[in-house]
Amino acid sequence: MADQQNNFPVADIRGRGTYVLILQVAHPARIQVGRLGCFDFRAGVYAYAGSAFGPGGLAARVGRHLKTEKRLRWHIDYLRGISRVSAVWYTVYPVRREHDWARILLQRRGASVPIPGFGSSDCRCKSHLVYFQHTPKIATFRRKIRCCFAEDPRIDQRVVPAGKSPALCLTTRGDFQ
Ligand SMILES: [Zn+2]
Fold first, then answer.
1. 122 CA to middle of ligand 1, Å?
2. Cβ neighbours, 10 Å, residue 43
3. CB-CB contact of 31 with 168 (8 Å)
4. How many percent of the chain have pLDDT more than 90?
5. Spans of all domains in the chain
6. Residues near ligand 1 ion, CB 5 Å cutoff
């Protein structure tokens, strides 16, 4: 597992901070999302905002998101079963920005909340998951963040090659039938 994770294009990121996963769902699917319930996911692009302030920082957390063999724990782990991570946006910065980033993602044209409460069980956000028909552009997001948080460092991006992020295909250990 460690070797597999080290091959991911995020292993060398040093530090803690906030990230967005860009997830591609190729086919509509109905899946169980932990205790939140059973939901229909449209084909399209989903952006998920999170933060990594635990041991290992961004590399460990995002690496876990990219891994395919794992115990399903967070809402996003369930969505990973039907999606591919195509890119990761992140910033190494000590202020937790995940809630602001989720809100700003939602303000974008064409953005919508696919599932209220997804990833936001512990906060007041409508959702930490945002739906788009087309992949959102990082340049637009950067401008918006810079406008709101001028002191924050520039947001970096890692594009994840298709082979590095296979869908789980509902075969991992967990609550799937
Ligand atoms: Zn939040």
1. 7
2. 12
3. no
4. 80
5. 2-164
6. 99, 120, 123, 125
